[in-house]
Amino acid sequence: MTETAEAIVVGLGASGGIIAEQLTKAGIRVLALDKGPVHTTEEFTFKQDEVKYYSRGSLVPQLATDPVTWRPDEKSTARLLPWAAGVRGNSEPLHLPPSIGPGGGTLHWGGASWRHRDSDFRMKSLIEERFGSDALDEDSTMVDWPIGYEDLEPYYDRVEWELGVSGRAGNIKGAPDPEGNPYESPRERGFPMPPLRTAAADDRFKAACQRLGYRPFQQPAAVASTDYKSLKGCEYCGFCHGFLCHVNAKQSSRITSVEAALQTGNLEIRSNSRAFRLDRDASGRRITGVSYFDAEGNVHQVRSNLVVVACYALENSRLLLASGINANGQVGRNFMTHSFGWCSVVLPEFSNPFMAPLVAASVVDDLNCDGVPDNNEGVLWGSVLTSIPGDLQPIEAAHNLPPGMRRWGQGFKDWFSENYRRLMGIHNQVPSFPSKKYYCDLDPVVKDKFGQPALRITHDWSEHDLAALRYFEKVKRAIAEEMGATQFWSEPTPPAYHLSTHEVGTHRMGENPADSVVDIFGESHECKGLYVVGGGQFPTLSGYNPTQTLQALAYLSADHILEKV
Amino acid sequence: MPAANEATKVRWVFLTETEAETVDAVCARIFPSGDGKPGARETKVINYIDRTVADEDEALRRCYRDGVTALNALTSELYGQRFAELSDERKDQVLERIEANSAVESTGAPQGPEDEGLLATFFALVWEHTIQGMFCDPQYGGNHEALGWQLVGFPGAQWGYNAEQMRPGFDSKTIPIKTLEDLRRELRRADD
Ligand SMILES: Cc1cc2nc3c(=O)[nH]c(=O)nc-3n(C[C@H](O)[C@H](O)[C@H](O)COP(=O)(O)OP(=O)(O)OC[C@H]3O[C@@H](n4cnc5c(N)ncnc54)[C@H](O)[C@@H]3O)c2cc1C
Ligand code: SF4
Q1: pLDDT of B8-36, one tens digit each?
Q2: B148 and B161 housed in the same domain
Q3: Domain boundary at A477, A497, A517, which?
Q4: Are A243 and A384 members of one domain?
Q5: A381 is in which domain, residue-wise?
Q6: A145 CB under 6 A from ligand 1?
Q7: Does some domain include residue B102?
Q8: Which residue in A292, A447, A557, B73 has a CA-CA distance of 20 to 30 Å to B31?
Q9: Which chain A residue has the Cα nearest residue B127?
Q10: Ligand number with the minimum distance to the CA of A223
Q11: Residue A39 φ/ψ, nearest 5 degrees
């Protein structure tokens, strides 16, 4: 007899955890499937291990078991992600899909926790108003969001107060606070925790930015600065981004929403359980359940008329495509990601970059979104500029050396032993724009070991990405000079990788079923009872990191589901 | 070429004596010794590599096996000696020559000694593993006595840092280095 569940949540990461919590608290019995393992307490306690988590990428899906392919354009043959494949092993764990297992990407994320600005929801209109209706190229598929900042504000508030975010507000109900973000859209109230202590080099960054006329403030962080609800105050161990947190300071759905859901007694978690098909009734218009492989590869089928798919933007679209749920051809379209601009700086004094979380840092938001100044370089939309004074271990640091320097020999040894302790980073991220040219589909050749087709990404950096990277490189160089840096360089741009872990857009939300995949609540237009949630819903990507917005959307979806049942 | 004998089996988990000798010679050009500060030899990077190769998959093992053969074939052809027998200057010239071809990457079967794709991949792999062997937790067999961490001033596996330590300019070499084993021991002691 086929098993039946009241509701199934596939994927217990950032968004799946929230929905599981809300449903179970309302008395619904939820079966959660997650393809990753349940990480043990011992793994969390002794996570100060760069080889395991950085070099060997033990938290992230490996290409051998979870193949993803990429090609720059339709003329090329897609290959396993070339920046992560090969015998050198997993030297790019940060450019594969996020960590797996209950907690998902929030197990090893950095915790930069942002609300979008009001303008982010109207990117297309604002760009066209300002730069003309032909500013976006002819392949553009950009649209405004079907909802606005004010619709999400109460849900952003829930993320901050229910899950825990530290920071300093800059605009409570229109009243400015110069210590906070002067550019944020109005919020109902501040953060439940004060900002974190900053890492050493941040002082210099902040002072230099102020001298240059910027208005730096502290990064809002999904890292607890004090004990708060299920979170404990951060210990500043520095094995943070890419690692598990041994004190539960990092806001991970594993210890927030998933734990709360377990406490209701209504959540059953099946780990190492990989969904491979979303099952529908004969009409194809109603969900009937999920088929999955257990760890041994046995096939199981669970029936349910409420299924929430929260497997990250990439796997969400792969599952829809593999299940044939794509009548309007929109699934996988509009792939977007950030092109990262990482710069490194050597400081005259010790910066000790191995201390503190990535987000114990200041941010300059003056040039983000529509705040990017008029320019002749063709930059239409801006980016945050973040100081990265911490969270850098030696192996990772050795992978980012000044260009042109020989990476071995006495000169390298001298340079590295002298300068590792003086490093810091400055980062920005340019949102790519949706285009007909950039999409995901099923790879016609490559399959995983269960015979399921791999996801294929077709993406290249656009003229706009390159222009914006150049523009921000100059800004960062000026800041580094003002800081008194003795050396400054940028990672090669554009990046060799096309996964920033901020992939969005692949199952766009919209009101019109003809040109979008889900509605604003994440429900499939094509197949009722099926919710597909996460960054895949975003019509456009912001200069900010995406997670707080997809968490807010998950609360919105949960409210809607509960109204209907 | 010295043949593998009983003694080498005890010493290396996976590598043959020739492989160990050759790889060690490459590592020692990446992080050299001789300036009074620890390099790849003192931190026992070759131990790390031996264990890693033993644990990892066949593609990686083959890259080491074929890479060593190709490198020694190349230096025999150029200078009539194995790589490890060359002077440091010559070793560096050979590695520079390989690196100049590093645009070509290959994991396929060797195409003879001049297979530059294979050698480039091999050198990139040894580089990667040398960095890991220098700065890994000592439980992996490299970073012997945390010498790699001492070299760069990294305090290793710590539970956390306080405000004083997080001040600009703080000398991190004053913080006692800890390894994962130290952390385990602390918790065991706390349990007692
Ligand atoms: C190193 C790193 C740092 C990051 N830092 C930041 C940051 O500072 N700020 C920020 O905003 N964002 C950050 N992100 C991005 C953030 O992790 C993601 O935006 C977020 O986790 C996405 O949430 P999600 O719910 O869509 O998916 P996820 O959190 O990725 O969860 C997906 C879940 O689905 C499971 N799953 C996948 N496929 C299947 C399947 N077929 N069957 C069953 N289960 C499946 C996975 O195991 C996982 O648990 C970072 C990501 C990485 C990798
Ligand atoms: S730096 Fe803080 S939040 Fe990050 S892992 Fe360490 S204790 Fe946890």
Answers
A1: 445 899 999 999 999 999 999 999 999 99
A2: no
A3: A497
A4: yes
A5: 198-251+338-429+460-497
A6: no
A7: yes
A8: B73
A9: A408
A10: 2
A11: -80, 140
Give residue A403's pLDDT: 93
Query: pLDDT, tens digit, for every residue of A74-128?
Result: 999 999 999 888 776 555 677 899 999 999 999 999 999 999 999 999 999 999 9
Of all ligands present, the nearest one to the C-alpha of A391 is 2
Chain A hits for B134, Cβ within 8 Å: 394
Residue B110 contacts A, CB cutoff 8 Å: no
CA of A243 to the centre of ligand 2 (A): 9
CB contact under 8 A, A394 and B148: yes
Q: Is residue B161 part of a domain?
A: yes
Q: CB B183 to CB A356 under 8 A?
A: no
Calculate how far, in angstroms, residue A355's C-alpha sits from the geometric centre of ligand 1.
24
Residue B95 forms contact with A (CB below 8 Å): yes
Cβ-defined contact of A409 to B29 (cutoff 8 Å) = yes
Q: B49 and B85, same structural domain?
A: yes
Of A88, A395, A417, the CB nearest to B151: A417
Measure B177 CA to ligand 2 centroid, in angstroms. Answer: 18
Q: Are residues B57 and B108 in the same domain?
A: yes
Q: Name the percent of chain A lying above pLDDT 70.
A: 99
What's the whole-number average pLDDT of chain A? 96
Contacts of A488 (CB under 8 A, 6+ apart): A343, A344, A345, A346, A476, A477, A480, A481
- Tell me the C-alpha distance between A344 and A485, whole Å: 10
Q: Is the pLDDT of residue B113 over 80?
A: no
Q: Encoding tokens for residue A135?
A: 């500013």
Q: Which residues of chain A have a CB within 8 Å of the CB of B137?
A: 48-51
pLDDT at A88: 66
DSSP A170-193: SEETTEE-TTS-TTSPPBSS--SB
What would the pLDDT profile of A220-245 be if each residue is shown by its tens digit? 999 999 999 999 999 999 999 999 99
A173-207 tens-digit pLDDT: 999 999 999 999 999 999 999 999 999 999 999 99
A404 and A541 together in one domain: no
Residues B18 and B68 sit within 8 Å (Cβ to Cβ): yes
CA distance A359 to B28: 37
pTM score, whole prediction: 0.96
Q: Say how far apart CA A275 and CA A277 lie, in whole Å.
A: 6
Residue B43 corresponds to which amino acid? T
pLDDT tens string B42-86: 999 999 999 999 887 888 899 999 999 999 999 999 999 999 999
Tell me: the pLDDT tens digits for A131-154? Answer: 999 999 999 999 999 999 999 999
B147/B165 same-domain check: no
Nearest CA to ligand 1 atom 21: A105
Contact: A197, B95; criterion CB under 8 Å = no
Distance CA A434, CA A436 (A): 7
> Alpha-carbon distance A388 to A372, whole Å?
21
Residue-wise pLDDT for A293-346, tens only, equals: 999 999 999 999 999 999 999 999 999 999 999 999 999 999 999 999 999 999
- A394 to chain B: nearest residue by CA? B135
pLDDT for residue B2: 46
CB A457 within 8 A of CB A63: no
The reply to whether B105 falls in a domain is yes
Query: Which tokens sit at B185?
Result: 């021991």
What is the phi/psi pair of residue B41, to 5°?
A: -70, -50
Looking at the fold, whether B70 and B138 belong to one and the same domain comes out as: yes
Q: State which residue of chain A sits closest to B141, comparing Cα positions.
A: A51
C-alpha to C-alpha distance for B95 and A14, rounded to whole angstroms: 46
Name the residue range of residue B169's domain.
Answer: 153-192
Say what the pLDDT of residue A90 is. 53
A213 and A361, same domain (yes or no): yes
**Best residue in A87, A236, A421, A423 for a mutation probing chain B (most B CBs within 10 Å):** A87
B105 interfaces chain A, CB cutoff of 8 Å = yes
CB A424 within 8 Å of CB A354: no
Q: Which atom of ligand 2 is nearest to the CA of A234?
A: 2
For residue A86, the chain B residues in CB contact (below 8 A) are: 105, 107, 121
